[in-house]
Amino acid sequence: MINHDRETYPMMSRRFASKLLTGGMALGLGLASFSTQAQQGEPIKVGVLHSLSGTMAISETTLKDTMLMLIAEQNSKGGLLGRPLEAVVVDPASDWPLFAERARELLEQEKVAAIFGAWTSVSRKSVLPVVEELNGILFYPVQYEGEESSRNVFYTGAAPNQQAIPAVDYLMNDLGVERWVLAGTDYVYPRTTNRILEAYLKANGVADEDIMINYTPFGHADWQSIVSDIKRFGSQGKMTAVVSTINGDANVPFYRELGNQGVSSADIPVVAFSVGEEELSGIDTGPLVGHMAAWNYFMSVDTPENAAFIENWHAFIEDTDRVTNDPMEAHYVGFNMWVKAVEKAGTTDVDAVIDAMVGVQVPNLTGGIAEMLPNHHITKPVLIGEIQDDGQFLTVWETDDLVPGDAWSRFLEDSKNIVADWTDPIRCGNYNPATETCSGQNY
Amino acid sequence: MNSMERKRFRHLRLWAPILLLWSLASVLHAQDQQPDGEDADTAMIESAPTDVEPGTLAELLPLLAKSNLRERAQLADAIATAGHPRSAAVLAALLKGQLHSIPDDPPRVVIVSAVGNDPDVVDAATGEPLGRASGVDSKRIPVNNLMRRQLRTLIARASLDVADPAAREAAVRELMGSDIDDDVRRLLMERAAVEDNATVREALVTAVALAKLGNEDPLVRIEAIRNLEGSLLSEARASLARIAANDPDPSVRKVAASALQSVQARVNFYRFLENVFFGLSLGSVLLLAAIGLAITFGVMGVINMAHGELIMLGAYTTWGIQQLLPGYIDISVLIAIPAAFLVAGTVGVAIERGVIRFLYGRPLETLLATFGLSLILQQTVRSLFSPLNRSVSSPSWMSGSLQINPVLSITYNRLYILIFGLMVFAALVTVLKRTDMGLKLRAVSQNRTMSRAVGVRASWVDALTFGLGAGIAGVAGVALSQLTNVGPNLGQAYIIDSFLVVVFGGVGNLWGTLVGAMGLGIVNKFLEPYAGAVLAKIVVLVLVILFIQKRPRGLFPQKGRAAEG
Questions:
Q1: Does B271 score more than 60 pLDDT?
Q2: Are B409 and A262 in contact (CB under 8 A)?
Q3: Are A86 and A28 spatial neighbours (Cβ–Cβ below 8 Å)?
Q4: Which chain A residues are closer than 8 Å to B387 by Cβ?
Q5: How far is CA B534 from its chain centroid?
Q6: SS3 state at B555
Q7: Cα–Cα distance between A59 and A37 in angstroms, integer?
């Protein structure tokens, strides 16, 4: 009961928790069940910055729960550096400027050792100046458009070369796709990703008239004309595929319209970068069977690590119907990396931890070892899965090796010579090895 | 009275073109109707080198259960060539995901029937019944897209000789969409020689002609082009366009170009009709979303920012009904209509009694209070049902599309929602114009004091009117649950559009709402291909703002003393 309250009303329980602290009890309310462990010292605070209300609550609430689970697990293993971990949950309410304010609150008032949070690119960009100014650490768990590397941010989601490019390779080489529809929601992630993909396709000899680019507003619900256009574009005698960066909510009407207009996955497959198990759980998956998604993790991956993770998740959330998804795995990897780096540094001091992070290796859930790279991105496998009618993915293709994440795309004119390296002697997020200059323009 | 009648005639004039288009569409439909043909692409099916030994069906099936995806594709080929009478059924089951395996040594392969909650299971090789799915521990044998295409072609090849003409035609169309090799061409020509059904023969002629377009002899190619002339099929038009652009022989190029030209006008006409339908369909969604608001805002003058959330409640009711009646998806949507009306209507009455009645005559405070209510309703739903979307299934009669001809098809869900929107509109107009309650409602909205003087319980009418508007919003939610996500944010997406439609159409005028919704829908859909979805929305908004500047009371302003007050 009490546990539940803490989740639903984080603000209130945090105040309550600090009262308890002054009362001499060194443990937060939510961690009371682990208080039997011998944990000495003041708790290490971990900030969780995910929207629990507003539009993004649909995706981010799960990540908040994932963090609470990971922290609880770590505490049951004896905490970190002999101290218990305490989650400080705040709700930025899907309001981008509020992300910055809440991040400031976490760093200035709560003095958290690290923040795990943000989902949309715009929320990350809003938090970035704050964590840089106050020298905090942010773990960002979602696939994103790249073209960024901040000293204070660790990107545990996929960069475009770990999701979009391999997916296009698969379509081109294995399915023989010759015509491309790049459909996306109109904001920074699809725009940048499509710019990279367009450059990549053209570099591979795809003609201009074989690429159709289409943007729609957030939550677009009337797909009739666009699907009809796609159908026409795809019936010109060349194998056509849709590469979709359509954001969450607009996907359901899009797939429904495809199904109703008789476009099956065998005719024109859609490969999506923003549709995962969590999104599928709210959809009647019948019309989607065979359409694809590219991720770095699927719930259906058959490894002992994944089985254990799913079991823990079901036990923690007390609902065996809940699914796991890619950003959850990213938090799992990110959190374990942070724990390892803190242990390696022997302190939660931000500068020491940032330096200790690079090179840290932890197992991921797909049977490989994720490594933090000098550009603050990690190595990941790329998996392509086809949607099944039970809302899970059937893996149809995966990369042989783990793919290291590129902070700056090799396929864009303005970033092809840029690298990020936060180790000595370069220590720069935007470095041009040819001219040996660091522009300081990290994002 | 006279002016009212004239008004009614003007509405008729606006109705006329819409009805005309409808009747036109139905006539065309009657003329050109063809059974559903899948608009398949002409992608290559790569037949991988076979390292699977040919064998009998009974030998191949256990291998299928243990295979990986690549082996499975080769096994499918081997099963097709095995030529067993059950081969086609096995491949069809594999395509539909009905082929399961039972872990055993050797594994047993079964077909699970698609019908019922606890479907029948039969042995794949023998067809012997094995009981019900609940009694068998089986796992589906998955396929991927590459295999789906391969299976469709394999099944089509095997189905050229089946008894059902519709199935034969579907098979021909499937083969037309795939890459026609010599083997398939021979099959098609053999079939064309003995085919006695006219429609199937026509399809066969087109298919053979398509295959002959690759012939080396220019005369054969010209002959084939002549056979394809006038065909609206996208495969035919795409091939002709390719020939017209790339053929080495200039005379062939010319014939192909003129053949293309001859259908272009028809294609353009059908595309125009398609666009009009898209516009009307978007209009019907706008109409459904706005019509409840036309009552609460238009007639009562209450700025109800929680209108969208009432729509959302209707959508959640649909989901709730589906949860209660899991086996009856086809009728649960129909049951949801009155249920959603009651749920949203009750909440509407509660909102009116609890909040709005204290705020009449204070529009700003009403706006803020109802905005607060909308947030409360959203978060309540989020806390009760989780922030995740709920999955609402579509009934089978609302899936798929009506294929009028190869260029023009109309999706059933949009068609039904369009009809439903018009029905709701007609019902509402009847209630307002023909019933006692409607009379009182209009009386109170026109002159409250006078109505009370003649004995109308104004506060009671207020509550019922708001309940009616809210209930209709709930009904709109049922329709929207078939088009979009059912989640806590559903209402937000429609609130702006609803106000836009009501203000544009003329506050207080139901017919204005209808014309406004349809007009905005059509303008939006005709702009979209040129401007893109984002810009089209902006342009429409700017146009409406400019329009309101010119005519502040909308398309059909209320006239007379009541409107001035």
A1: yes
A2: yes
A3: yes
A4: 53, 57-58, 61
A5: 21
A6: coil
A7: 33
Q: Is A213 on the interface with B (CB under 8 A)?
A: no
pTM of the prediction? 0.79
Q: Are strands A292-295 and A383-387 parallel, antiparallel or unpaired?
A: antiparallel
Give pLDDT, residue B44. 34
Set of chain B residues whose Cβ sits within 8 Å of the Cβ of A58: 387-389, 487, 489
Answer for the pair A255, B458: CB distance below 8 angstroms, yes or no. Answer: no
What is the spatial distance between Cα B32 and Cα A228, in angstroms, rounded to a whole number? 20
Q: What is the pLDDT of residue B388?
A: 78
What residue ranges in B94-146 does DSSP mark as E strands?
99-102, 108-112, 120-123, 129-132, 139-140
Q: Using an 8 Å Cβ cutoff, are B100 and B109 in contact?
A: yes
Enter the ipTM: 0.77
What region does B112 belong to: left with phi over 0, alpha with psi -120 to 50, or beta?
A: beta
A324 token code pair: 């796991």
Please name every residue paired with B482 in a beta bridge, in sequence order, or none if there are none. none
On whether any CB of chain B is under 8 Å from the CB of A288, the answer is: no
Token code pair at residue A62? 């799960």
Decide if B38 and A216 are in contact by the 8 Å CB cutoff.
no
Of the CA atoms within 13 Å of residue B351, those in its CB half-sphere come to: 32
If one counts every other C-beta atom within 10 angstroms of the C-beta of residue A81, the result is 16
Q: Report the residue from A226, A260, A389 with minimal CB separation from B413.
A: A260
Other Cβ atoms less than 10 A from the Cβ of B67: the count is 17
Single-letter amino acid code for the residue at B338: P
Q: What's the mean pLDDT in A6-10? A: 38
Instruction: Collect all residues of chain A within an 8 Å Cβ-Cβ radius of residue B42.
Output: 237-238
| Closest chain A residue by Cα to residue B272 | A225
Nearest CA to B485 out of B276, B352, B319 is that of B319
Q: Touching check for B497 and chain A: CB below 8 Å?
A: no
pLDDT tens digits, B406-461: 888 899 999 999 999 999 999 999 999 999 999 998 898 888 889 999 999 999 99
- Determine the pLDDT at residue A380: 95
Q: Picking from A12-21, B71-80, B144-153, B333-342, which range would have the lowest pLDDT averaged per residue?
A: A12-21
Percentage with pLDDT > 90 across chain B: 31
| Interatomic CA distance for residues A368 and A359, integer angstroms | 15
Chosen for mutation from A5, A224, A255 (greatest number of chain B CBs closer than 10 Å) is A224
Q: Is residue B68 predicted with pLDDT exceeding 50?
A: yes
First to last CA, chain B: 21
- Cβ-contact A273, A193 below 8 angstroms: yes
Q: CA separation (Å) from A425 to A152, A418, A421, A428, A431?
A: 17, 16, 9, 9, 12
Q: Are A289 and A262 in contact (CB under 8 A)?
A: no
pLDDT band at residue A194 under the 50/70/90 scheme = very high
Chains A, B: CB contacts within 8 A come to 166
Interchain CB contact of B46 with A (< 8 Å) = yes
Q: How many residues does chain B have?
A: 565
Q: Judge: A221–B484 Cβ closer than 8 Å, yes or no.
A: yes
Residue B10's pLDDT band (cuts 50, 70, 90) = very low
In the block, tokens 């849709």 appear at: A242
Rounded Cα distance between B81 and B69, Å, is 19
Phi, psi values for residue A115, rounded to 5°: -115, 135
Query: What CA–CA distance (Å, rounded) separates A234 from A237?
Result: 7
Q: If contacts are CB pairs under 8 Å, which of residues 222-241 in chain A contact chain B?
A: 222, 224-226, 228-229, 231-232, 234-240
Q: Is B389 on the interface with A (CB under 8 A)?
A: yes
Say yes or no to pLDDT of B149 above 70. yes
Q: Which two tokens stand for residue A401?
A: 């090796």
Residue of A nearest to B233 (CA): A235
Contact A224 B69 (CB under 8 A): no
